[in-house]
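Subject — a protein and its fold
Encoding — discrete vocabulary of local shapes:
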Amino acid sequence: MSKKAHFTTYHHSCDVLCVGGGIVGLMAAIRAAEGGADVLVAEKSHVERSGSGGLGNDHFICYIPEVHGDYDRFINDVMKLQNGPRLRQMGPKWARHFFDQTAEIVRLWDSWGIPMKHNGEYYFSGHATPGRTRAFLKYKGRDQKPVLVKEAQKRGARILNRIMVYDLLKDKAGRLIGAVGVSARDYELHVFNAKAVILGTGHVGGVYPNKTVGSPAMRMIPRTLTADGRMMAFRAGACLCNLEMPNIHAGVKYFNRGGQATWTGVLRDPHGNPVGPYVDKPLHDYGDITIEVNKTIFNEYAETARGPVYMDFKGSTRQEIDDMRMWLSHEGNSTLVRHLDGEGVDLMTHAVEFESHGITLPLSSGIVFNEKAEATVPGLYAAGDEGYGGMAGAAVFGRIAGEEAAAYAKKQPEGELDQAAGQVKDCETLCTELLDRANGAHWTEANSALEQTMQDYCGYVRSKTMLDAGLTHLRRVRAHARKELAAENPHELMYCLGALNLYDLGELIFLLAEDRKESRANFKRGDYTMPDVRLDEKRHIIFRKDGQFVLEWR
């Protein structure tokens, strides 16, 4: 019997729909509910531990006047480090708007029960060169999400777990009126009537292969983050940007997770020599900034017979090591801390090998949104890793999105969902085809084929001939995926839909990479080796108009 007969449709109505129950979705829900909106949060996993922030975080970029003093000096130092390129693209007005609100978020979180102080004081550490401003506040964020869930529910926000929102809905006039999605557990179709929609589906994983091949779950970005927000926004007419810019992270070898700035030792070669010029002994307030200045230095040492490179802690006190281990556990690295203990590794005497991890998308890529968190489609908002990421970006702009969406919703009539019946039917048909297909391809096959294609044709060094060949290949494989993907159950259906989103995102990455005729930062073109200074501080935009791709620089 066709599984189509088992689909039950559920209808939901709200003023503000938060797609994604991460930091963005929860902060948006809290603020929108405070503004009097009826709020619903839809999360494809479970809100308490989902997404990049689910296992915790230990650093929060912020400007606290009583600590940092003069803002001009603060922002001048911040612009020199890893957040600088992102902030320069957004502009000084946007940056000031962002930083002016970070102190309030810090105080709010602390009052709600997320410990933002260490030993009774604000403590800043990491992501900084010795002697310059430290902008990253250390905090105990391991249980930040359960705290935010309680705050959202306390204000009346409703939460639906295990629901993957797949597409946005518009009426015949083109007005955004809601969304449609499916359950990741049951044969259910969920249709949302919403006056405003906030997208907070996080970073993107699964576009490039994981560096640690034997451990598919050992990823810095969870497998559930499949560009859902970006692609539903794009299909609805929103602009995306900077997707082609590679991001390269670094950390413990074979442990592909975040937390590089939590490690506070010195990077040394096998002979004990520092590989960077910044520190020659552990400085626990700063760490070794070499890892941020050049995240590929580990590859360079290996390729020139000078590796491996180790993070060495000799000279640290026992208290400094214990503090670092504590921060690692809050940064989502509890598994690694337990492993070190199980293997009898004492960081006082043992160095840890580091590596450059594989390519990911940068936190400055995704949905284009302004200082009000407004996307380029009226009624659509985005925040966090959808466009300007990091924990502080998610918290600040999630809150802004909630406030703006609630105000927008008050002025809007309820949408007529019957005008979007065709879009709902298209989603149901796609899901039914995937579930009904016998002897089809598993989503992991499709995902692996995409990752291999991206790595081979749009990897570390790119060229027109390789990009053109890769785009042709990707489109051919995507066509097979659409015809052959099969889901055994609703859980696999979620991953199949995610894989299709990733293929569509991959196409956009190829188009943008071919259009960027320069080399800049981690973006390398073998046929255009110089940066084009005319593109400094510009964003590379892509959107659809009349069925055609449009690419612009803004």
